[in-house]
Structure formats: structure tokens, C-alpha cells
């Protein structure tokens, strides 16, 4: 007789998600930008349209076969301000997009990158940060960590003023410097009255991982698109994390992402990459994504930052 | 959307690699008694081992309560000593987890798989974070020499050389000072250090028989060296190897601790009542932990079988438990004898 025994509590389930080939983010606007009115919004959309068309054409030309699935999304900044309710903003955005000839498949809320349905999403990502080691890091000492900050190398030595005066200033070092350093120290969060306020780069890093379908909470996906509610609420917090505007849209998650952004976001995206380089990935999830893409004849980069592309747009 | 079940997943699984090259997994396990007077409850165990938000603590009840924390990663860029004294530059992340068995015994374990194929230069850090628990050498290295070099290093680790022991020691200290524990272990015991290596030989390697060597260095240091033939890679997944090494380390610790208790009690001459008094916590807290191989995957059970023949862990265990029961029986007889003589005198 063959017997088997197992306990489900010892199993780790990992949920799969549906993938597009490419997830395109169409610009990013602060709430204040929406206050500038519909005309401003339309001019932004008109600015995005040609870059988007070029990007999709280029992507399609590079794909070996078939028409790739491309979904588009738009991230609403409801974390740092909550000036315009969904009932006003969404119709405005849809109309501007329609008139500008750009298809918006999904709208996501930035605050869902911090916390959503009781899951501390940003904290999950922060927990997986592993600082880039400088040469000689052998495990014998705990990693040097400044709470709430993450750098791309080794900071300048600091100490009591008296001690520092004894020595000449020593520069910080970028761990992956090529001859010379570009040292970046990113603030991940600030704290006020015990409440943690996540920084824009931290939330943008979560946003990228979310679009790449790499986020899990106890093996479950956290952020999944939901249909547009019939009655739009007055508060963003009552909205789903990702709202599907286009019923026939390709899946929200993408094997890779492209963000069409205004040049003002260059600094933030550099910080995002500094963060993402240092997030240890769930190897199970990573393996499955690579395998699934391969089954469709698509090779995705092994590293997360290799899956993320940008076009920084110029207003000619 | 699908949900797929996988057994307790180990993210650095050599069996998943299609490459036919040799690789080596190395690690160190610290085993000791939780600083807590009673058996730790399931709830407290879960909270203690909740090391990573969003990742589960895997708990099981049969045949004994067992809990395993998620893995946390640490980045390293340092040397690994080979058996011929060379220093091989390696970069990547090591993983550390903790396990609690029977609500009593804490183990912290740090490990990594070393890929000796070698790259010419250090890659972007994103390359390493995408492969948690994997170290890559800069320049080609020999897997046999890496494994032998790691196993031979039972003393202090030279600065700049990979110190997995320090990483798991830090986690052990951190957990032991948790407010969830009352700080009062029921018996005095020592911690053991178990360094282990698993050499996964290449497709072209003729060594076809698996091998396991267990060496006791002194009171506290042990090494386990496994040689895994290419054909058995699938059975000896890294997750299974980790479980095997933790199981061996756990039982070695229980046996070591029991033997030390017996030695201590035997040295108390004459006063059997005091000796038996000292036996109580040993009986209550240690004896039920003996379940060799219970958590080891069937394919790896032959390693345990081999160690049962030579040196015969369970043989020594049974002898020790027999000695304890004899002491209790003698003490009972003594008490009964006392009662009898009292009655006669009365």
C-alpha cells in the first residue's frame, strides 16, 4: 500500500497572474496638475500620444511573431494629496484621453502602493531590501543601515565632530562605480507621530514591481484590477487599487514595463532603480515569469531593472 | 488565475538548474535551547519567526511541532577559502532562517549556493538580488576545493572571508532576546555549530554513489559533508538537504545535551534523590524530541540509515534513556524500600 501524508500549513502557495507583453504608463501627473483644468490635461495627453505610438510600433517590430499584448495605465497620485475626487477626475481623464486618441486601459491609485486592503504593501518591499555590499562585506558585521534611507554604496564616514576634525573628509563611494562615483542616498520614508510616510521613489518602486506582477503577500497577488464601479465614490480610498476602464484591455501586468514620463521625474526614477536593484526577489515568482514569457517566445531580462524602460518626454 | 501548490520552497535549488556544471551549497546551523521556561506556544512561535512581512511562517504538527521562518537575505562581497588555501572572490546573497522544534529547540541556519563557473567582473547588484541565496565567484573556481575548504574551517574565520556563522549567530541572539521569551531556560545547555557542505557534482563526474560524512570536532563543532551524484540532483534538492542537515544537527544537539546532563548527574555521588530531581527537567523537556529522520524526505533517509549503523545515534540515545529510566526505577525501589522499613519499624 502506498501512503502519503502532508500538512497544508507547510505548503507555500504562489499565485500566478495574467501577463501582457508590455505595460505602458502614460505620463504621471500630480493632483495639482489636474487643477490646471481640462485644457492642460488635453495638452499633456497630446504630448504623450506620439511617444506612445512610436513606442508600441517599435516594440511590435522587435517581437518575433504575432501581435503583442500591450496594456496602458495611468497612476493617480492620491497619496500625497487628495484634491479631486474620483467622480470628477476619472471622467475628465477619460474624455481628454478619448479626444487625444490615447487609450487608457487601467487607472491605479498611488496610495495602494503604500497599503491596500490591510496589506502593508510598501513594508513588504522594504522588508526585502538588501543593501548593496562594498568589497570586504563578509557577514561578520550587521549591514550598516540608516533607518529609512538606502544608498547605492558606502556613505562618507560620520562621527562626533571632534573625531571628524582629526581626519580629512572621505568621499562616499558608489558600490558599482566605474572609475568615479555617482553616489545616491534615497529616503524611503519619513516618520511623524509614529506614522510612516513613504517617499515618492519608494512608492514608485512598489508600482513598478506591481506592474511586473512580482508582488506577493503570503503567496497571493496583492494588486489586481477590478471593474470601474458604477457609482464613483467621493473618496479615493473607497476605490479599488487598479480600475479597469477598458473592458477589452490586455492584462494589467506586463513581462516588462515602459513609462512615458516628463523629464521632471528623471531624479525620482533614478532613485527607483537604486531601490529596485536592492530588492531581493521571490525566486519562485521570478522563475515562473521567465518560463511563461519563454513559452510565448519572449525572453525577459533576469534582473528586475532590466525589465523596466523609460521614455523621458520633452515638450518641444 | 491559478494557485499552484509547491512544497516548502527553497529559492536556490540546484536541481532547477539546467547547467550540467558542478556547484556547491554551504551553510552553518546553530542549535540550542530557547530561553523560555515552557514549550513556546504556536502563536508565540509564529510571532517570533515572523522575520519578513508578506511571507508565511510554515508550521507543521506531525510528528512533532515544527515551525520554519521565511528566509532573510544578506549581501556579501568577500573571499571564500578553498582547501588549497586560495582565496576566491565571491559576490551575492546568503539566506538565513530560523526553525523551532517541539516549541523548545531553536535553530538558525545561514546558507548559500556557490556557483563556481565565475564571471569576469562583479555584476550589477540587481543580478544578485534576482537570485537570492546564490553566490557567484569572480573567476572560475573548483567546486570540490570550495566544499573541502569550507568544511575544514572549523575555527575562527579570517577577516574578509565569508562568515556565515556570524550571520546565523546574530539571528539566534536577536531571537533569544525577544520579549516573547521569558529568559529562563529549564536546563543549562550549550549551543552547537554545524557547518555543512553539499557538493553537487557535474554531469561528467564519475562519482555515482552519494556520500555523507559527519565529523565531531569538539564539544560544540560538527561538520557534515555531502556528495551528491549528478543522477540524484533531483532527489537532493537544496530544500531537502537543508532539512536533512537541520534534522541531523537537531538530533546531535539533543543527544549531546542529554549526554552532558547524564555526565553531570553521574558525578553527583550518593545522593540519588538530588540526582533524580535533576533528571526531571531533562525528562520533561528533551526526551520527546527524539524523532530521527522524521522530517527528512524519503529519498534522503538513507543518510540517516547510514549514521544509524555507524555510529548509531539512536543506539546511544536508547542507552542514555535506559540509564535515566533505571535511575528512576532504582529511586522508586529505594522509596518503596523506605516505606517498607518504616512500616516494619512501625
Rg measurement of chain A, Å: 22 Å
Euclidean distance between termini CA atoms of chain B: 83 Å
Rg of chain B: 23 Å
Termini gap of chain A? 77 Å
How many structural units, i.e. domains of chain B? Answer: 2
Largest beta sheet of chain A: what is the strand line-up? Answer: 13-14-4-3-2-15-16
Tell me the count of domains of chain A. Answer: 2
Written as H for each helix and E for each strand, in order along the chain, the element string of chain B is: EEHEEEEEHEHHEEEHHHH
Number of helices of chain B: 8
Biggest interface between chains: A-B, 56 and 53 residues
Task: Note down, in words, how this protein is organized.
Chain B: Residues 1-20 are annotated as: Disordered. Chain B: Residues 11-20 have a biased composition (Low complexity). Chain B: InterPro entries: SCO2521-like (IPR049749). Chain A: Residues 137-161 are annotated as: Disordered. The complex is a heterodimer of chains A (316) and B (346). With 316 residues, chain A is of the alpha/beta class. Chain A folds into two domains: 13-128 and 196-313, no CATH class; 149-187, no CATH class. Chain A is built from eight helices and 16 strands. Chain A has helices at 31-35, 38-62, 86-100, 121-127, 161-166, 200-211, 266-276, 283-295; strands at 12-15, 20-29, 70-76, 106-109, 149-151, 153-154, 173-174, 185-187, 189-192, 195-198, 216-217, 220-221, 225-227, 242-244, 254-262, 308-313. In chain A, strands 13-14-4-3-2-15-16 form a seven-stranded mixed β-sheet. In chain A, strands 5-8 form a two-stranded antiparallel sheet. The longest helix of chain A is centred in the first third of the chain and has 25 residues, at 38-62. Chain B is α+β, with helices and mostly antiparallel strands. Chain B folds into two domains: 16-234; 256-345. In chain B, 35% of the residues lie in helices and 26% in strands. Chain B is built from eight helices and eleven strands. Chain B has helices at residues 42-48, 125-129, 143-152, 164-176, 238-266, 272-285, 301-309, 313-345; strands at 3-6, 23-33, 58-60, 66-68, 72-81, 87-101, 105-119, 134-138, 192-200, 211-216, 221-228. In chain B, strands 2, 3, 4, 5, 6, 7, 8, 9, 10 and 11 form a ten-stranded mixed β-sheet that branches. The longest helix of chain B is centred in the last third of the chain and has 33 residues, at 313-345. The radius of gyration of chain B is 23 Å and the shape is elongated. At the A-B interface, strand 1, helix 4, strand 11 and helix 8 of A face strand 1, strand 3, strand 5, strand 6 and helix 2 of B.
Amino acid at each position: 500500500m502506498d501512503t502519503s501524508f502532508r500538512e497544508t500549513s507547510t505548503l507555500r502557495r504562489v499565485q500566478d497572474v495574467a501577463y501582457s507583453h508590455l505595460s505602458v504608463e502614460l505620463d504621471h501627473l500630480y493632483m495639482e496638475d489636474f487643477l490646471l483644468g481640462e485644457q492642460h490635461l488635453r495638452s499633456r495627453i497630446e504630448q504623450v500620444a506620439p511617444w506612445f505610438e512610436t513606442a508600441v510600433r517599435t516594440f511590435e517590430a522587435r517581437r518575433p511573431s504575432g501581435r503583442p499584448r500591450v496594456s496602458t495605465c495611468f497612476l493617480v497620485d492620491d497619496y500625497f494629496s487628495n484634491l479631486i475626487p474620483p467622480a470628477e477626475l476619472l471622467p475628465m481623464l477619460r474624455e481628454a484621453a478619448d479626444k487625444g486618441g490615447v487609450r487608457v486601459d487601467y487607472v491605479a491609485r498611488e496610495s495602494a502602493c503604500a497599503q491596500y486592503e490591510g496589506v502593508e504593501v510598501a513594508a513588504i518591499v522594504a522588508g526585502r531590501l538588501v543593501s548593496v555590499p562594498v568589497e570586504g562585506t563578509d557577514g561578520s558585521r550587521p549591514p550598516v543601515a540608516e533607518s529609512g534611507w538606502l544608498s547605492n554604496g558606502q556613505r562618507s564616514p560620520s562621527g562626533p565632530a571632534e573625531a571628524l576634525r582629526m581626519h580629512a573628509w572621505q568621499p562616499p563611494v558608489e558600490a558599482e562605480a566605474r572609475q568615479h562615483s555617482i553616489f545616491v542616498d534615497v529616503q524611503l520614508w519619513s516618520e511623524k507621530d509614529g506614522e510612516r510616510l513613504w517617499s515618492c521613489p519608494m512608492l514608485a518602486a512598489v508600482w513598478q514591481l506591481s506592474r511586473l506582477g512580482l508582488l506577493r503577500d503570503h503567496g497571493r497577488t496583492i494588486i489586481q484590477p477590478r471593474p470601474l464601479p458604477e457609482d464613483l465614490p467621493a473618496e479615493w480610498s473607497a476605490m479599488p487599487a487598479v480600475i479597469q476602464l477598458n473592458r477589452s484591455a490586455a492584462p494589467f501586468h506586463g513581462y516588462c514595463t515602459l513609462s512615458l514620463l516628463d523629464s521632471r521625474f528623471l531624479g525620482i526614477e533614478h532613485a527607483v532603480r537604486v531601490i529596485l536593484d536592492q530588492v531581493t526577489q521571490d525566486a519562485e515568482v521570478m522563475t515562473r515569469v521567465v518560463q511563461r514569457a519563454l513559452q510565448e517566445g519572449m525572453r525577459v531580462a533576469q534582473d528586475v531593472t532590466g525589465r523596466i524602460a523609460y521614455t523621458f518626454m520633452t515638450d518641444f | 488565475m491559478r494557485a499552484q501548490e509547491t512544497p516548502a520552497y527553497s529559492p536556490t535549488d540546484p536541481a532547477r538548474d539546467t547547467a550540467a556544471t558542478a556547484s556547491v551549497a554551504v551553510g552553518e546551523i546553530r542549535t540550542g535551547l530557547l530561553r523560555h521556561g515552557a514549550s513556546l506556544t504556536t502563536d508565540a512561535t509564529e510571532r517570533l519567526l515572523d522575520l519578513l512581512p508578506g511571507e508565511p511562517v510554515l508550521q507543521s504538527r506531525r510528528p512533532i511541532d515544527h515551525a520554519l521562518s521565511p528566509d532573510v537575505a544578506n549581501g556579501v562581497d568577500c573571499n571564500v577559502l578553498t582547501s588549497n588555501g586560495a582565496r576566491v572572490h565571491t559576490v551575492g546573497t546568503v539566506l538565513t532562517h530560523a526553525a523551532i522544534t517541539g516549541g523548545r529547540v531553536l535553530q538558525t541556519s545561514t546558507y548559500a549556493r556557490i556557483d563556481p563557473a565565475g564571471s569576469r567582473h562583479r555584476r550589477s547588484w540587481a543580478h544578485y538580488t534576482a537570485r537570492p541565496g546564490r553566490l557567484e565567484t569572480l573567476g572560475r573556481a573548483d567546486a570540490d576545493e570550495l566544499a573541502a575548504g569550507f568544511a575544514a574551517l572549523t575555527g575562527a574565520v579570517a577577516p574578509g572571508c565569508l562568515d556565515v556563522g556570524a550571520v546565523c549567530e546574530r539571528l539566534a541572539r536577536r531571537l533569544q532576546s525577544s520579549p516573547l521569551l521569558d529568559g529562563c531556560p529549564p536546563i543549562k545547555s550549550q549551543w552547537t555549530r554545524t557547518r555543512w557542505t553539499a557538493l553537487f557534482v557535474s554531469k561528467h563526474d564519475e562519482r555515482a554513489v552519494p556520500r555523507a560524512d559527519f565529523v565531531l570536532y569538539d564539544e560544540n563543532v560538527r561538520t557534515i559533508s555531502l556528495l551528491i551524484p549528478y543522477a540524484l540532483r533531483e532527489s537532493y534538492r537544496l530544500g531537502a538537504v537543508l532539512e536533512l542537515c537541520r534534522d541531523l544537527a537537531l538530533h546531535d544537539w539533543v543527544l549531546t545535551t542529554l549526554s552532558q546532563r547524564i555526565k553531570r548527574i553521574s558525578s553527583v555521588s550518593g545522593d540519588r534523590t538530588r540526582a533524580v530531581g535533576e533528571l526531571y527537567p531533562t525528562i520533561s523537556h528533551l526526551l520527546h524530541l527524539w524523532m530521527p529522520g522524521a522530517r527528512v524526505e524519503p529519498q534522503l533517509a538513507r543518510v540517516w540509515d547510514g549514521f544509524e549503523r555507524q555510529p548509531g545515534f539512536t543506539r546511544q540515545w536508547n542507552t542514555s534513556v535506559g540509564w535515566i529510566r533505571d535511575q528512576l526505577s532504582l529511586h522508586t525501589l529505594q522509596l518503596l524500600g523506605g516505606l517498607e522499613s518504616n512500616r516494619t519499624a512501625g
